[in-house]
What does this fold into?
Amino acid sequence: MTNERQPLLDPDLADRLAAAARSGDPEALARLYRAYGPALLAYLQRLLGDQPEAEDVLHETWLRLFSGRGEWEARGRLRSWLFTVADRLGRDRLRCRQRHNLLTPRLNELNDTLAPTAAETPSDAVHLRELLDQVENVLQDLPPAYALAFQLRIREEFTYAEIAAICGEPEGTLRSRVHYTIKQLRQALARSTEIDRKKDGAS
Amino acid sequence: MSSEHPTEEQLVAAALGELDKTPDGLRIEQHLAACPRCRDEVRELGGLLDAARSDHLPELPANGLAQLQAAQAAAQAHRPVRRTAPLPLLMAASIALVMFVSGFWSGHLAATRHDGEYLDSTGRLLQGELPNLPVLQFSVARAESLPTVAPPDSGS
It folds into this structure.
């Protein structure tokens, strides 16, 4: 099951709802959770590559909103604050996994600058669903750092400055990752179009 | 063609709306206005990005919101209850403290008085009766219960 992407909440409204949620208003919390939860979960799934752990960190992220530590302040926009917290908590999990040798080079992959070539993704149609699958395939094959930067820039439409604040990487690095990902997508699409053409020619 | 074709990097920047007003950015904009082939490429990239944007997001965990709302309610319960009128209480407490301290102080001063002279709270030597203030009267009562202090000019 998946969710349609909702239009973004007005940032001022979101900040007011956040203040209300902090004072105990369950409806304000529900509105924010429904508006931002799915995108945060998508981000965390990509970061952690594990569904239950991503849900766990999602929960933890929201708890920070009304924890007594007062970490959230109105001067920071709620949406980028949530992504910042999710990113930090997610990376803590990865570090923890690494300490316990529960795997994986995933945390190191986050710092990779070398991107593998995109997988061959033959497709026999250019329907949106298939195009999306293709996008997903390409993102899966890239180091997570690339897919994460792409997700924040293209899907969440954050500026590079905001993304830099969220994941603590220089803007230039993020920009080249986003561009690289787009080029990989374009090549994958071109390859599949080529395959289509050959198939059409053969039949 | 007025200028050479932009690099792929620059076309991607154009599709992302990242061209700035630098001479380079302006040159690419001009080129795109004049070159249908590059415009098509930017449009194609734009379509790709639109497709990438229209992805479907994961479903939230079934009981996620309920758990958060429970935690929200618990956080409220543990937050210290705000008093409805903390200021008057604080004021009353501070007035009581001032009265206690000044009463003690003037009691001490009153203990040193003699022949109608006394020191006020600023240390000035005054003559006559003590002002009829409850604090001072209380202090005088305390002072009279203390041993008498010899006047300074009667000492030998």
In short: The interface with chain A takes residues 8-9, 12-13, 15-16, 18, 44-45, 48-49, 51-61, 64-65, 67-69, 71-73, 75-76, 78-79 of chain B (CB under 8 Å).
